[in-house]
Amino acid sequence: MTCGLLLCTDMDRTLLPNGHQPESPRARELFHRLVSREEVTLAYVTGRHRALVEEAIDEYRLPLPDYVIGDVGSTLYQVRGNSWELQQDWQDEIAGDWAGYDHAHLAAMFSRLDGLELQETDKQNEFKLSYYVRLDNDSSAMMEKMQDLLHTEGVQASLVWSVDELKGSGLLDILPASATKFHAVEFLRNQLGYERDQTLFAGDSGNDMQVLTSSIPSVLVANAAVDVKAQAVTDAQASGNRDALYLAKGDYPGMNGNYSAGIIEGVAHYIPESSAWLNGNDQHE
Ligand SMILES: [Mg+2]
What we know:
Blueprint: E1 5-9, H1 27-35, E2 40-45, H2 50-59, E3 67-70, E4 75-80, E5 83-86, H3 88-95, H4 103-110, E6 116-118, E7 129-133, H5 139-152, E8 157-164, E9 169-176, H6 181-192, E10 199-203, H7 209-212, E11 218-220, H8 226-238, E12 245-247, H9 259-270, H10 274-279
Magnesium ion (MG) binds near residues 10, 12, 13, 14 and 204.
């Protein structure tokens, strides 16, 4: 019998209903009820930095988590009320990849490259460099040049490229190679002493994929894109982890499986006794 649950969830379009699909009216209220249980430790796992996590918590009236894995895995905070404590153990864990270099060193190394502009200070941290990149640049050639510079210095980094359609700008994050959502969830799980089967991850896309297709029990919310669902199933199957991936379908309990309804459905799938957590033990259904 499971006696505790480490519930780790992505924010945008997983917990936050900020996609195109509708949210079931009671979903977030039930999510609150679920995570207020003593058995549940809640972690938000997100690309957002601290201020943007706090903004989302306010805007969407979300429960305060116990932990936040932020900045795409490059920060880990323990949250107690208004106090956010950056976990030095995690910083030490990922620091090795950068061979003694930090943000300032790498920024200096890249300063002679054209077409790169550092993003605002709040989007940077010791182990995350974030740039705006002009879209008329040859971004793959630039990233190759950057990786060459990094290799020369013995730095293991991942370069994460995306495009901000609204701003018409490329976005480039440089992170320690091991600063991933997967590695951070595993680190937190080990630190807190949870078994894999006492852990559940919820996500919807992109950088969630590595966790979704790993042996960590996971749920893909129903609002995820069709191609993401297909890819997740294929990858989970290929790595022998199909049993640890659940696709929310909707209809539990009478909700549509999108966003927090999907997370709740995932918890119910892996931990059947959690239905009592939602209803109160004295009720049927
Ligand atoms: Mg997301």
